[in-house]
Amino acid sequence: MPDQPTPATPPAKPGLKARWLFIILALTFLFVLMPFLFWQATWFGKPLNDAQLEKSLADRQHPREIQHGLSQLADRILARDTVTRDSARSFYPEVVQIAQTGQDELRLTAAWVMGQDNSVPDFHQELLQLIHDPNPMVRRNAALALVRFGDVSGREEIRSMLRPYAVTAPQAGGVDQRLKPGESINPGTLLGHIRTGNGSSELRSQIPGTIDHWLVPDKTSIVAGQSILLVNPSTTEIWEALRALYLIGEAQDLPTVDEFARGAGSIPPNVRQQAELTAAAIRSHGAR
Q1: From 14, 75, 119, 136, which residue has the greatest number of CB atoms within 10 Å?
Q2: Model confidence over 149-164: pLDDT tens digits?
Q3: Is 258 within 8 Å of 225 (Cβ atoms)?
Q4: CA quadruple 128, 282, 109, 210: dihedral positive or negative?
Q5: Fold of 165-233
């Protein structure tokens, strides 16, 4: 039986081709557009004029807008030209208000901004209040900012940045551990859960660092305020504390600083170098 000829494939309809081409182009555009929109939404470098800055600082419904405004305000304070720096001063009352009433992340950002201009008495007074804030990152930012004012009121807080931090239980219940020793964490990282008679609540970190060890066994009953987890400081926190102690450190800080200078643990070279500089500066202060 002779071979039957293979039927020819019917040509695609022009309309179908155009439709698929449009879909492919649209998807390609979205793949490019979505990262750009995400970057725009999370990037704080977009310049704001006075009206936009005022609107951002007042937007209590969107904390990231306030953070954007605070970041832009810091840029103005640090600008080279006098006109730009002076334009920031009219927004200083808003910064103080945010430091007093804002959420945790807003208070810590406001503390950082206030440290950029050490000529403002209101900033100085507000920072003295923030070193007693319930959030450790707010206290640390305030303590570091006070160094710019020549104020050593936050020295104990800065020293604590070089030591392990004890996480305390926000409420009584049974602890369900999630992370293990050696794992890195950041503010907001979920550490575990606390079970109560009404369900469970999340236990999240307020600081960056590395988990040293749990102070209580898993599934243990705990009471509110009990220390349940030890966290070693992050290298960034250590570096910032060493920089501050370069200016306000005392002889009693030398054993700790020298330990970092010797490279205790997996200390990066830049942190060891800063520790060496800090130790030398403290010794120089004592010799005066």
Answers
A1: 136
A2: 999 999 999 999 999 9
A3: no
A4: negative
A5: OB fold (Dihydrolipoamide Acetyltransferase, E2P) (2.40.50)
